[in-house]
Amino acid sequence: MTREFTSVGVIGLGTMGAGIVEVFARNGIDVVAVDADESGVAHGKEVLAGSTGRALRREKMTQAEHDALHARVRFTTDLADLAGCQLVVEAVPEHLDLKKQIFARLDEIVGPEAVLATNTSSLPVTEIAVATRDPKRVVGMHFFNPAPVLQFVEVIRTVITADDVFEDVKALAERLGKKPVVVGDKAGFIANALLFGYLNHAVSMYESKYATREDLDAAMRFGCGYPMGPLQLLDLIGLDTAYEILDTMYKQGRDRLHAPSPIIKQMVSAGLLGRKSGRGFYTYAEPGSPEVVPDAWTPSGTLPTGVALREVASVGVVGSGTMATGIIEVFARAGHPVTFVARSDEKVAAVLTALGVVFQGAVDVVAQNAPAFVASGLVLVLLLVLMRVVGAERSHLDDLAAKVHVDEFEAAADYPRVAKFGAHLLRRGAGGDVVILGVDIQQQVAHATTDQVGLVAGSLQTLDHADGVPTDLVALEWMLATAQHFGRAAWAWSTAQR
Ligand code: CAA
């Protein structure tokens, strides 16, 4: 028998519960929304009104749809009101005893055909199920935050869940416009098991002052294309929830990746729960608001006293792989003469072909900065690069070193070669104007050329090595500003102060 699910209950009207209420009501299903007390109910109403009000303002919903959605939801503090529901989804805080208590009570309230689901993120669904007289009708139905937006639900099948219960819940998730995935009953299921190790790691970097919150978030947003950075996401999830998830996963799996970073618990104790309390890693306009407002840790955006930015005269790129080609393109698009070094004529040709494809559609972008080339178009744009390319590696390096100003951007994966290159440049007299940007390069260059290095920016992590050359902060600021100038988010990963 396939269940239709026309009336469902949701228990717990926090961030997740209120979002789940909205998901059901938006899809034409009647909802009994329960919380333990009036303040919980008031919170649920407020979240629902906020979200549907925004949809109304943005004209994603008509007034009639808005009103009909609200008419489908009945708020209550009495679990007994769930009596007529065909499905109940529990979304209370992540405490096993509390959940077991609720499920045991539901046995007395709902009909024998009703399905019981928990939205737990990490607690064992099987243990919750066995708190009832009929564990076969219990499943996990794990939504993601914000539930109305994210089209994903994990359906957790225990060893005892009945086939029809499981299939009906999966079909319901599809009816709600979500992609259901099926997963066994293991802490964190799929998504949280993968996600929370990463989030926890980000917190420990923040806690050890390895990088600022803005830079950590920028790294993952702009560097990896995530919709939010890890600390922004933790503020959205709620630090109390995040703590419970990590703690549960850690207790079950003993994987140190999941041992909650101490600062999470401290922030929870201090009431810094994220967006919902108005302050977490960031400060928000008011509790529940997504709007970040400046606070004492917000970067001023101005350069430190005494720092003056230099003009980029020319740019050299070592390498001809995907990264090097992309970097050449970025600088060339911004109108800078670029010299690049490749290991063979074939590699040089491959880079030029790749750039040709790009610049066919973007001649005007380059031309804005090089008016002389406007008329000649593509051919001259390519020449701009081509003229600076010669055959063997050694002559390339000499070419670069012969310049008075060489601002070098490293893109080679092979660090010893880059170190050799840096040393070569410096020996050839490019000294004080060489800025080498790159990962873990500083120490290697320093070995060969300590007394000659003018400004070497890069991985400040190497400050940890006694023989490293302390990075000049002026150079670092220059590097960040340069990257930003080229429309790239930049960050310094460092144990030093910025
Ligand atoms: N409630 C309802 N709707 C919301 C919302 C919320 N809290 N936040 C945003 N929206 C809606 C907006 O109204 C907007 O809708 P329309 O396009 O229809 O107007 C849409 O979502 C996009 O919002 P914005 O334009 O304001 O912002 P955005 O494009 O940056 O998207 C985001 C915001 C959807 C939150 C996006 O940043 C995102 O997907 N972030 C990642 C979230 C994530 O990873 N969640 C998983 C957390 S882990 C978890 O939930 C499991 C657990 O057990 C804790």
List the keywords.
498 residues; alpha/beta; Rossmann fold; N-(1-d-carboxylethyl)-l-norvaline Dehydrogenase, domain 2; 4-stranded parallel sheet; elongated; disordered C terminus; binds acetoacetyl-coenzyme A
What is the structure about, briefly put?
The chain is an alpha/beta fold and 498 residues long. The chain has helices at 15-26, 38-57, 63-71, 96-109, 125-129, 163-175, 191-207, 213-223, 230-237, 239-253, 262-269, 322-333, 345-360, 363-367, 377-386, 393-401, 415-430, 442-449, 473-485, and strands at residues 7-11, 30-34, 73-76, 87-90, 115-118, 138-143, 152-156, 179-183, 283-284, 292-293, 315-318, 338-341, 407-410, 435-437. Residues 360-419, 425-475 and 482-498 have low confidence and may be disordered.
Structure explained in plain terms:
This protein has 498 residues and is of the alpha/beta class. The protein folds into three domains: 177 residues, NAD(P)-binding Rossmann-like Domain (Rossmann fold, 3-Layer(aba) Sandwich); 91 residues, Orthogonal Bundle (N-(1-d-carboxylethyl)-l-norvaline Dehydrogenase, domain 2); 171 residues, NAD(P)-binding Rossmann-like Domain (Rossmann fold), CATH 3.40.50. It has 19 helices and 14 strands. An eight-stranded mixed beta sheet has the order 3-2-1-4-5-6-7-8, with helices on both faces. A four-stranded parallel beta sheet has the order 12-11-13-14, with helices on both faces. A two-stranded antiparallel sheet has the order 9-10. α17 links the parallel β13 and β14. The relative contact order is 0.07. Bound molecules: acetoacetyl-coenzyme A (CAA). Acetoacetyl-coenzyme A (CAA) binds next to α2, α7 and α9.
